[in-house]
Write a structure and sequence with these properties.
heterodimer; A: alpha+beta; 2 helices; 36% strand; B: alpha/beta; FAD/NAD(P)-binding domain; 8 helices; 21% helix
Chain lengths: 120, 424
């Protein structure tokens, strides 16, 4: 049994959470949260933490040298560096439209990386 | 040339103000933007976390901006890009905006109303009095953000960041992801001015130490930064002898505060608040100059763009009403709004019971961290509102939705109090 203290990052309030786990590492109780999302975050962060990754990808022949990108959804925290390695290798040809997939299955997470801006 | 409403700045504030003005019936709205594209600072804020309140989803800066830019295009709001406003002046009741661009040269635009939406700028090294040499490798965090995210340059490999404002925290992660080593973030205050989730996701996730009550006391290097010396500070923020630590690095990023950019406001004689460095505004977000409205970071520095958009919509709506009515509605009384306790300022600084709509959002910041706090609003000594706030922090803006129905008439002052619960 352990109590893990976290700061909730589901919204800018940053509620101080206490996540209680049993011997098996299973979450018994989340306290300190002010909404349902806080409880979900507390459980998730202790068992399977996830993060969004945002970066840039080189553009060839575009009006700007780079296009901003992000993972389409959150990925496992432990996969951030694998995901970044794929993003840093990627190069796209203009035009790129907001929402276009720039890297498929980034870092083997099953999550795509999409453009967050249009570069003509 | 005359336009009903001229909006200075095409970032999140200017866009939302222009769209709200147009939707409130103003036909002739013009946006003036210094950069070659709309969107303002959002264009370089490529991280996610924008729009949770407005769109109920987590967008990046460029995506948040794109929603407003698309709407401005649908509404066919004219915007002049790469156009810098160099002067704002008033003759009689008329307002004149002087701007320059390569395409149009020097133009003087007469405006029925003006919305100030110029945003803010970063406090530079010169404002800090850090001793040491003046080598290359010292950047404001926002400059580094622009270099990395828009221009594709990594400004350094071994980095120390002074100041734990949100841009500094975001750049600690960004530089790390791009292969730089961020050695530490030093913060003068005993607490961080940044959002908690940024401390968790940008520092803790990458094992970057946050050194509270620390500052940079020396910068070394002739051509390029070779290191900095940091030291712990006492309660008077004076470095404590014996706590010095020399850190080799090639880059120092400064994230030490944002200052509303009010040169144009000053030019036209808008009264500024010494606390926010932004205009003093009434309940309609109108400055001391009739017909000149302000919103977003030029008014007071925000931490969430959602609230910038919300505030700017109000400014745009009121600017449209001002133009439609042919001037400011005279109010018999203007109640001053006074911050008390830990509240440092309020926006607005006055509320006219006659002119106000059913609700007015009062925004403010506290000057210290408060646990188990309470926010109360009084009219004179009569308690109008009281709500518990588990946590209040200087880095996070607070707000109260003030109701017209709370006023019975005859009040002389509205007091906004933020304090610990026990204090009562």
């Amino acid at each position: 049994m352990a109590v893990i203290e976290l700061t909730c990052i589901s919204c800018p309030l940053g509620c101080p959470l206490k996540v209680e786990t049993d011997q098996a590492g299973q979450v018994v109780r989340v306290t300190g949260n002010t909404c349902k999302r806080g409880e979900l975050y507390g459980k998730k962060e202790v068992t399977a933490p996830e993060r969004m990754v945002a970066s840039t990808v080189k553009v060839e022949g575009g009006s700007a040298p780079l296009v901003s990108v992000r993972t389409q959804g959150p990925i496992p925290k432990g996969k951030i560096w694998d995901c970044m390695a794929d993003i840093r290798r990627a190069v796209v040809k203009a035009p790129v439209k907001l929402g276009d997939v720039v890297v498929e299955n980034a870092g083997g997470t099953g999550v795509d990386v999409i453009a967050t801006k249009t570069v003509d | 040339m005359k336009h009903d409403i001229v909006i200075i700045g095409g970032g999140p504030a200017g866009l939302a103000a222009a769209e709200a003005a147009r939707e409130s019936g103003a036909q002739d709205v013009l946006i003036l933007e210094r950069e070659p594209e709309l969107g303002g600072i959002l264009n370089q804020c490529i991280h996610s976390g924008f729009g949770l309140h407005t769109f109920k989803e987590e967008l990046t800066g460029p995506e948040y901006a794109a929603r407003f830019i698309e709407k401005a295009e649908q509404l066919e709001i004219p915007h002049w890009l790469s156009t810098t406003v160099v002067d704002l002046s008033r003759q009689g009741d008329s307002l004149f905006v002087t701007c320059v661009s390569r395409e149009r040269g020097l133009q003087v635009v007469e405006a029925g109303a003006v919305v100030l939406a110029m945003g803010c700028r970063e406090r530079p090294r010169g404002a800090l009095n850090i001793p040491g040499t003046r080598p290359a490798g010292i950047f404001s965090a926002g400059t580094a953000q622009r270099l990395v995210n828009l221009e594709g340059y990594l400004p350094g490999r071994e980095v120390v960041i002074l100041g734990s404002g949100d841009i500094g925290l975001i750049m600690a992660r960004r530089m790390t992801l791009e292969g730089a080593k961020v050695k530490c973030v030093a913060e003068l205050m005993p607490y961080s001015g940044g959002l908690k989730r940024n401390i968790v996701q940008c520092l803790d996730d990458y094992g970057i130490p946050l050194k509270l009550s620390h500052t940079v006391i020396d910068i070394q290097g002739k051509e390029r930064v070779t290191g900095v010396t940091i030291a712990q500070v006492d309660e008077h923020m004076k470095p404590i002898p014996g706590t010095e630590e020399q850190i080799p690095c090639d880059t120092l990023l400064l994230s030490v505060g944002l200052i509303p950019e009010n040169e144009l406001s000053k030019a036209v004689g808008v009264e500024l608040s010494p606390v926010t460095n932004g205009p003093k505004v009434n309940e309609s977000l109108e400055t001391s100059i009739p017909g000149v409205f302000a919103c977003g970071n030029v008014l007071h520095v925000h931490d969430l763009v959602d609230y910038v958009s919300e505030e700017a919509e109000q400014a745009g709506r009121h600017a449209a009403a001002f133009v439609a009515a042919g001037g400011r509605e005279q109010a018999a009384e203007e109640l001053p709004v006074k911050p008390e306790g830990a509240a440092r300022y309020t926006v607005p600084v006055t509320i006219s019971p006659q002119r106000m709509e059913d609700q007015v959002v009062i925004r403010f910041r506290v000057g210290r961290n408060i646990r188990k706090g309470v926010v109360k609003v009084y009219a004179d000594d009569k308690l109008l509102y009281s709500r518990k706030r588990p946590v209040m922090a200087p880095g996070e803006m607070e707000q109260v939705v003030f109701q017209k129905a709370w006023l019975a008439g005859g009040e002389t002052v509205i007091r906004v109090v933020a304090e610990e619960e026990e204090a009562q």
